[in-house]
Amino acid sequence: MIKGITVILLFQGLGELVAQLTAFFVPGPVVGLILFLAALLLIKKCPPEVEQISAVLLSYFGLLFVPAAVGVLLYASDVLEHAVELIVILAVSTALTILVTAFVLRIWFVRDAKTEDKHD
Question: What average pLDDT does this structure show over 46-52?
């Protein structure tokens, strides 16, 4: 389990380093996550140690939302003041997420169908 968490933290640190050196507008942990995804795609499997620690971390995933909920309660007056804008932003971002997901899945399914046709 130590090896798995070490791998995850190394990629987070690498992401921070890349973000700092390149002045990315993307947070370091996100860059690290992208680098980790690229590494997993290259080796085409997830190491068992990383898979094990990922299951443990996902079991506590709900706790990550507690600070956000406290923040919303702390700034409830600001949230209520800008409620219309927040609702519009949430609706537009949700719609865009659904559209992008549908577009990516369509490309994926078309590619998958072409691959199956080549094998038949």
Answer: 92
